[in-house]
Design a protein that fits this description.
This protein has about 120 residues and is of the alpha+beta class. The protein has helices spanning about 5-10, 15-30, 100-120; strands at about 35-40, 40-45, 50-55, 60-65, 85-90.
Length: about 120
């Protein structure tokens, strides 16, 4: 199984910097947030899957949220791209990332997971 460090070693420098910056930011939003390599890319967990980072061939990095369809995105950056549940935003550089917005997205994803966990307990 590929480790996060091995994964990072496969990326060209601009993408690696972006993935590392997004990773570091996401895991600090509300620790502990775990990172596991799934399908060859890093997924973030807090109980259930929250988000993932997917480097694209053209050089961008997609930040996807597994329950993005239920998230409020006033920025308009999250796109479904034909997917039923997942929404993602694509970034080319560290400088263009709206860090406050990413923080809000991660918090919303955690809240959605917590709410779903609570609903399942009540059943």
């Amino acid at each position: 199984m590929q480790s996060l460090l091995d994964f990072l070693d496969t990326l060209p420098e601009p993408q690696r910097l972006l993935v590392v910056a997004l990773h570091d930011h996401i895991v600090e939003v509300q620790p502990p947030i775990a990172v596991r390599m799934v399908y060859g890319i890093p997924f973030f967990y807090k109980g259930k899957r929250l988000a993932y980072l997917n480097p694209k061939k053209e050089g961008s990095v997609d930040l996807g949220f597994t329950r993005g369809h239920a998230m409020d995105d006033s920025s308009g950056l999250l796109e479904a791209k034909g997917r039923a549940q997942i929404k993602s935003a694509s970034f080319q550089t560290v400088e263009e990332v709206p860090w406050d917005t990413v923080t809000e997205w991660v918090r919303q994803a955690i809240e959605l997971n917590d709410r779903l966990k609570g609903e399942r307990r009540q059943r």
